[in-house]
Design goal:
Blueprint: H1 5-14, H2 16-20, H3 23-32, E1 35-37, E2 43-45, H4 48-56, E3 60-61, H5 64-67, H6 81-85, H7 97-105, H8 111-115, H9 118-135, E4 137-139, H10 140-145, H11 147-157, H12 164-175, H13 184-210, H14 216-222, H15 232-263, H16 265-273, H17 278-288, E5 295-299, E6 303-305, E7 308-310, E8 315-318, H18 320-323, H19 358-375, E9 389-390, E10 399-401, E11 403-405
Parallel strand pairs: 2-8
Antiparallel strand pairs: 1-2, 3-5, 4-11, 5-8, 6-7, 9-10
Helix pairs in contact: 1-3, 9-11, 9-19, 11-15, 12-13, 13-15, 15-17, 15-19, 17-19
GO molecular function, one term: iron ion binding
Family: Belongs to the cytochrome P450 family.
InterPro entries: Cyt_P450, Cyt_P450_B, Cyt_P450_CS, Cyt_P450_sf
């Protein structure tokens, strides 16, 4: 019997099979309806143009209280470290607060500032590649895909390299807050991770106030817009956001992208023969298996999408992963093609919430894949597809473990 949209979405969000392989389910939901109101009252948008239009709408706002209402009521909000953090971070702010926060932090992510980091990132990549060359086999996620963006963002902020490993699991635990269908145990784990990183960055902020350095955190502490400065809570929130987004999204891009190349060796060979395609290939990696699969918004006014009016006060899920496989925008969308150049990806969102660190993430990935393909012509995954483990998450989709060998 054919499943309806609600049944397909339940399978997508709530089953191990749906979390591991979401794309066939996206297609079936998209074929049924471009805009769907679920039985629980949430709205889902699936097509590329519709998702892009919705994310750009001035009436599609961030509202953590509404998005996380199914797991905890507003009266209980302050009891949860993972939720208390959200109103203080730019990711969940709306204008004028969002405009203010973005202006105070934006100086660090200009094209000039990002390009100035290229020599450092190149050296980091070469060092991690040296380890792969010495060892012959590594867990690519643990030994490459996490350390690279963690070091890059950590050094920007002024986090000592020695502290980075201790931050990985707590930060990942907190970021599970963005997943749909959290259980009370899941929320407790998110709280534990959030409390750890809040405490860590609180101490780091205080230390940088006393001893400013040549790093982004010191610059954020000193940043002013007239008489305006970031508050203590906003500084801690900014550290959590920049470090968390800096390593999680880029780590997943590096992992999902490498997996796509391993599963399509002819595309890997094509990149070796045409290294000038690397920037284009990174865009295709972002499209084909996006590290960010969805975005949450709440409407403050009726919004019309694909001929359907979404009412004011609606909670909306924009399915970026489904949009990236929309055949109306990407011909033969299930084909991984490093030469594709059909449309801008939505992995870094769209509109005013477009990710500040997108250019940094792209540069890290371009340098990483260029270096690995150049240095290791026999790159492969020992054990094949069965050796690859995905995290059981959808919002931030990524590989948990990926063995990688040089020959």
């Amino acid at each position: 019997m054919e499943m309806d949209a609600d049944e397909l979405l339940a399978q997508l969000f709530l089953t191990p099979e749906g979390l591991r392989e979401p794309y066939a389910l996206y297609e079936r939901v998209r074929d049924l309806t471009p805009v769907h109101r679920t039985a629980l009252g949430h709205w889902v948008v699936t097509g590329y143009d519709d998702v892009n239009t919705f994310l750009r709408s001035q009436h599609a706002l961030k509202d953590p209280y509404r998005v996380f209402a199914p797991w905890v009521g507003k009266d209980e909000w302050q009891e949860h470290a993972a939720l208390r953090r959200l109103p203080n971070i730019m990711l969940w702010a709306n204008p004028p607060d969002h405009t203010r926060l973005r202006k105070l932090a934006g100086f660090a992510f200009t094209n000039r500032a990002v390009q100035a980091m290229r020599p450092q990132i190149t050296a980091m990549v070469e060092g991690l590649a040296d380890k792969l060359e010495r060892d012959g086999v590594i867990d690519y996620m643990k030994d490459f895909a996490f350390p690279l963006p963690a070091m890059a963002t950590g050094r920007m902020l002024g986090i000592p390299d020695a502290d980075l490993p201790s931050l990985q699991e707590p930060m990942r635990a907190f970021q599970d807050i963005y997943e749909l269908g959290l259980t009370p145990d899941d929320l407790a784990a998110c709280d534990k991770g959030a409390q750890f990183t809040d405490d860590y960055f609180s101490e780091l902020v205080e230390e940088r106030r006393k001893n400013p350095g040549d790093d982004l955190l010191s610059a954020l502490i000193a940043a002013k817009d007239g008489a305006d400065q970031l508050s203590q809570g906003e500084l801690i929130g900014m550290c959590n956001l920049l470090f968390g987004a800096g390593f999680e999204t880029t780590t997943n891009l590096l992992g999902n992208g490498m997996l796509a190349l391993l599963r399509h060796p002819e595309q890997m060979d094509r990149l070796r023969a045409q290294p000038e395609l690397i920037p284009n290939a990174v865009e295709e990696m972002l499209r084909y298996d996006s590290p960010t699969q969805l975005g949450n918004r709440v409407t403050d006014s009726p919004v019309e999408i694909a001929g359907t009016v979404i009412p004011e006060g609606s909670s909306v899920v924009a399915l970026v992963g489904a949009a990236h496989r929309d055949p109306r925008r990407f011909p033969d969308p299930d084909r991984f093609d490093v030469g594709r150049g059909d449309a801008p990806v939505l992995s870094f969102s769209s509109g005013i919430h477009y990710c500040l660190g997108a250019s940094l993430a792209r540069m890290e990935a371009q340098i990483a894949f260029s270096t690995l393909l150049r240095r290791f012509p026999g790159l492969h995954c020992p054990g094949g597809a069965d050796a690859v483990v995905f995290r059981p998450r959808l919002t931030l989709r990524g590989v948990e473990s990926l063995p990688l060998a040089t020959g």
